[in-house]
Amino acid sequence: MTEDLNLILEDAKDSMQKGIQHLEAELVKIRAGKASPSMLEGLTVEYYGAPTPISQVANITVLDARTISIQPWEKNMVQAIERSIMAANIGVTPQNDGVQIRLFMPPLTEERRRELVKKAGGEGEQSKVAIRNIRRDAIEQVKKLQKDGLSEDAAKDAEKEIQEVTDKFILLVDKHLAAKEKEMMSV
Question: What is the structure's pLDDT at 138?
Answer without folding.
Answer: 92
